[in-house]
# Entry
Amino acid sequence: MQTNNDAVTNQRTDLQQRFTDLLPAPHRLARRSFLRSLGLGAALLTPAAGVLNGVARAATAAGSASNTINAGDAAILRFLAAAELLETDLWQQYTELATGNDAYMEAIEVIDDDFPQYISDNTDDELSHATFLNAYLSSVGAQPVNLDAFRTLPSSHATGALQIGRLTNLMNLTVDTSWWIRYRSPQNADFGATFPQLINIVNRSAIPPHDPPTGKEIQAIANTAAFHFGTIEQGGSSLYDSMSVKVSDLTVLRIGTNIGGTEVFHFAIWNDGAGNVPSVRVRGLTFPDIATVFEGDPLREKDLIMPEPCEFIDANLPLCSVIRPTLVQNAGAMAAVTALTNSGLFSGQSQVFFQTLNALAQAADAAYRICN
Ligand SMILES: [Fe+2]
Ligand SMILES: [Fe+2]
# Structure
């Protein structure tokens, strides 16, 4: 019988394989190994120089992905592909350490025994999103997105981290935890509401930068990660809803709503899991005992994880339990880039990186639905 340790070791082997074996995938591979091979291969085959030159053109492809999409739909899919590449990069770092660094894995498992598995699977899902979106763009004659030129940020030096260039930086994060209260509130940011932080996590590491920290320090790092997971996935949930209502093509709409649903699925898991972080205090950061400190507070109580009905469409209509926010100015591509940038996720990135990401985001936000 396979033990949990065996499973983690297998995941680890898969992960290393992804970066060391670029040969074509064998015909018979486990689903997740196949996705990893496919994703990296696709990324490497895409010319980085064309990252800003994509223009959707009419095309009829053989097979099921035959379609023609307009420039707005292509711009939306291209930004989503970029977002998924960034997500994959950060989740990849979490997987390496949650499955390959004993101290971090133990601290993560204090929150939930299943978290290393969930982290690894979330990573696979993001990779599948990025790979699919780029493949779909190519299938309709549009330019896919390649961010490989920006894999320049350093890795953690802790045991378990591969020493490769990264797109994202998980070691200086200011984690927005206001989603915890936003989803427990009957108010909606799309109607102007703002929400306070549940916990102030300012300029902290969500992965161990090196070996060791131990004890309280590593638990504070793991707790920071547990909230960052939810922060990332609630952002993805809002982003996909925001973009989906602007597309013109029915297949592109299907792509947006189907992938977006997975982001919501992820968020729900991390929303529930974050409530289990143990109480810990280190210099500059305090995680309270969420179960007891916030008991009786409807905006903070641990078990209130179902999205509270809130304002939606029109304040005169009944409250409705929905993803929020979803207006472009609050949840669209530039809003996502701004939030991620402000969180420190791109600390150390080049000006060209920000110019590239902003251009992709502005094009996506400018797209609008065209009805024939
Ligand atoms: Fe995703
Ligand atoms: Fe995601």
In short: Residues 84, 87, 126, 129, 236, 263 surround fe (ii) ion (ligand 1) (CB under 6 Å). The chain has twelve helices and four strands. Confidence is low (pLDDT under 50) at residues 1-9, 15-65. Residues 239 and 332 are 5 Å apart (CA to CA).
